[in-house]
Specification:
With about 750 residues, the protein is an alpha/beta fold. It has 31 helices and 15 strands. The chain starts with a helix and ends in a 5-residue tail after the last helix.
Length: about 750
């Protein structure tokens, strides 16, 4: 363990060295981020997942830097270039850029103009010119003329000397550092359209003649320009003013206006244009890309977390429909555990319009399988199918709920779906995914590559390794925050539980299928490849409802069971009594149970779990409906007030589904009457909102929306009174163990400021 790394990380993250050291030790021992954050609070000083991930990622970068440092030192030593001074400088380098600058003069490289000049014997001339002390050197250059070596004239000799000086300037670490600062502060990103590509690259029209300071350029613009260049429509450069860069080098290297100084000035200009500017531009391109990637990945991760932790309907029997026009609508029925009970195909909408026949089928399925909710995919034909379902007289009210089916087609064609439903085609699998996504979004979405869910920003352009690491962190964090019912979870869900691999998750499912439901957490130790160390990592996040030990249904870790049992003994009651009786819990004095291994943070968590064992941290499910009669983009009018659901939040705004098969954009400037810097501060994925249509471009299939309170003089359409009457009340679907909220209208605030005729 490198003590300097620990100190550096602690200083950078403003943490105590003990916290960093303990966290690093736990990570190196194989502990996962969720496990450390939840069950090792005393050891880390209650660090949360964000801090633990920051420590992990910074440590990885520092270790990579040390690895590169070792390679450079080995290379320098092998080539006889390593001096005590150089070694000290290499060991002291704190960034990869500084390290590479130190290595640059010694790094093996292709044959350069400077090398060729040295082969011609011109290095002594270059040394004397660079010193700028002898004004007669220009005439003395004549002595370096040697036709056999290719030096035909005095100018040939001076040109070769300048090539050598230009390379020295390029390899000067201090000059590169100063120039790097200039590029970081003042470089401008300039993009242009490639000639004769104006029509083909129309989607990049905004960047045909674009210029802005690179340091200020937001992630989405950097990535858009890069994509336009990759696709052959744009060219771009990231450079500061050329004369400013050259002037910086001249001030450093040119000592006078004498002839020798003029030769150095020419070498500086050549070195900047031919070597340094391209080298620095490559660096800043990479830096901008890295910054843009980090911002885009952060946006994606935040959106994904909101999507994964969306409110579940819970265990309800669901009839799910994957809509379709020509091929019909695939209908599946799922029981309360998500098991497929039956499927049909109906043709209630265009071009078939077999409405009556389809309604009878739905009625029969609802009655046969005791359906409690109907899920309709929001794809093609979704609004029409939703209207059809709402028009069926089912005897008793059954909610019809639109479900975002983004990624369902990816799942239906995947190996996971084929393994799960080998005897059904992709349409049935897709409908099942829609229904299960309503019941438990987290359990279903983990089966799909997050990049296919559609909540990212240029996700295919960013560093894929960094993206995968970040998304895996989000999925693992979400899964373990909710907890997993071991007796019903799929292999795909189990593999994200702390400590479990895909192989071990599969082993759990195999054991469960062979031996029946698990009766206790300890029984997991009988699963093939489940060792004690893995068990410790995973057990607290796995739930066993109705098991032998009531604590197995909670987030209390098995290693803390003795503490709870001691509490029960001291109160002369059972653990179940303790969980069910608040009065008993109030009699517990936590300080009596503090020990070397169990501190107050863990005891506090235990008491929270005893009060609400296995509590789902997700919000209650709320019913939602789009505006009746607004089914396609042609139905929209400027000024309409509509309910919507946020589907994606980006750096420049948020996309909102308003039920017309094309999401509208709420630009960041239209999110609120105040300035909004970060859209995530205002909106989250899956949030229900009230929006106003401010522009409709049917030709380009674009909808502009606003969440700002419109002034009275921009009066809405007369039809808004009818719209206001249709604004759906947002009701709460009651889940087990939850109190039912009073009905409320989330759109009243938006409508209150509109003048309704």
């Amino acid at each position: 363990m490198n003590a300097q790394q620990i100190t550096k990380i602690a200083d950078e993250l403003k943490l105590r060295e003990h916290q960093v050291q303990t966290t690093v030790d736990l990570l190196d021992d194989g502990a996962t981020v969720p496990f450390i954050a939840r069950y090792r609070k005393e050891m880390t000083g209650e660090l949360d997942e964000v801090s633990i991930i920051d420590i992990r990622d910074r440590l990885e970068l520092l270790r990579a830097l040390d690895k590169r440092r070792e390679v450079i030192l080995t290379s320098l030593e092998e080539h006889g270039k390593l001096t005590d001074e150089l070694e000290s400088m290499v060991l002291a380098a704190e960034t990869l850029a500084v390290l590479e600058d130190l290595y640059l003069p010694y790094r093996p490289k292709r044959r350069t103009r400077a090398m060729i000049a040295k082969e011609k014997g011109l290095e002594p001339l270059a040394v004397k010119i660079f010193e700028q002390t002898d004004d007669d050197l220009i005439e003395a250059a004549t002595s370096y003329i040697d036709p056999e070596k290719g030096v035909e004239t005095r100018e040939d000799a001076l040109a070769g000397a300048r090539d050598i000086i230009a390379e020295w300037i390029n390899e000067d670490g201090d000059a590169r550092a100063e120039l790097r600062e200039l590029f970081a502060a003042k470089a401008m990103i300039r993009s242009k359209v490639i000639k004769e590509q104006e029509e083909n690259g129309i989607k990049y029209r905004d960047y045909y003649e674009w210029e802005e300071r690179a340091a200020d350029a937001p992630s989405h613009r950097i990535l858009a320009i890069r994509r336009g260049a990759d696709e052959g429509f744009l060219t771009f450069h990231i450079l500061p003013d050329e004369e400013e860069g050259i002037g910086l080098l001249e001030r450093r290297f040119v000592k006078n206006d004498a002839p020798t100084g003029e030769q150095v000035r020419l070498a500086v200009r050549d070195g900047y244009k031919r070597l340094l500017s391209s080298s620095m531009e490559t660096e800043i391109r990479l830096d901008c890309k890295k910054r843009a990637d980090e911002d885009a990945i952060k946006v994606f991760a935040e959106n994904l977390r909101e999507l994964l932790l969306a409110s579940p309907l819970g265990r309800r029997a669901v009839l799910a429909i994957d809509p379709g026009f020509r091929t019909g609508c695939k209908v599946v029925c799922l029981d309360r555990q998500g098991k497929l009970l039956g499927n049909e195909t109906i043709y209630p909408i265009e071009p078939h319009n077999r409405t009556k026949e389809s309604a009878e089928i739905v009625k029969r399925l609802v009655k046969t399988f005791h359906i409690e909710a109907i899920a309709v995919g929001n794809g093609t034909g979704g609004r029409e199918t939703e209207t059809f379902c709402k028009g069926i007289d089912l005897g008793s009210p059954i909610p019809v709920i639109m479900v975002n089916e983004s990624g369902a087609s990816v799942y239906s064609a995947s190996e996971v779906a084929r393994d799960e439903f080998p005897d059904y085609d992709v349409t049935v699998r897709g409908a099942v995914s829609i229904g299960r996504r309503l019941m438990d979004p987290l359990a279903e979405l983990v089966k799909i590559d997050p990049k296919s869910i559609g909540v990212g920003q240029y996700q295919h352009d960013v560093d894929q390794k960094a993206l995968r690491t970040s998304l895996d962190d989000v999925v693992m964090s979400s899964v373990n925050a909710v907890g997993v019912e071991v007796n019903t979870a799929s292999k795909e869900l189990l593999k994200y539980v702390s400590g479990l691999s895909e192989r071990l998750a599969g082993n759990i499912v195999v054991y469960r299928n062979k031996n029946g439901a698990f009766r206790s957490r300890r029984q997991l130790l009988k699963v093939s490849a489940m060792g004690p160390k893995t068990f410790v990592q995973a057990a607290g996040f796995l739930r066993i409802s109705d098991g032998e030990d009531p604590l197995d249904a909670s987030a209390v870790h098995p290693e803390s069971y003795p503490v709870v049992e001691a509490m029960a003994r001291d109160l002369e009651c059972t653990v179940s009594d303790l969980m069910n009786d608040e009065g008993l819990r109030k009699r517990i004095r936590l300080e009596n149970y503090v020990s070397e291994k169990v501190g107050m943070p863990t005891l506090t968590d235990i008491m929270d779990e005893l009060a609400k064992p296995g509590r789902d941290p997700r919000n209650q499910f709320e019913l939602f409906a789009f505006m009746d009669g607004i089914n396609k983009i042609s139905d929209l009018e400027v000024g309409m007030a509509l309910p919507g659901v946020v589907t994606n939040v980006t750096a420049f705004g948020a996309f909102v589904d308003i039920g017309v098969h094309q999401d509208g954009l709420v630009h960041v400037s239209e999110m609120a009457d105040r300035f909004v810097k970060n859209p995530h501060d205002v909106l989250k994925v899956n949030q229900k909102v009230a929006v106003t249509v401010i522009d409709v471009d049917e030709k380009r299939n674009r909808i502009a929306l606003s969440m700002r309170e419109r002034p009275f003089d921009s009066r809405p359409k007369a039809s808004e009174k009818k719209q206001a009457e249709q604004m759906p009340e947002q009701k709460t679907w009651k889940r087990e163990g939850k109190k039912k909220k009073e009905p409320m209208n989330p759109f009243a605030k938006a409508l209150k400021h509109m003048r309704i005729p």
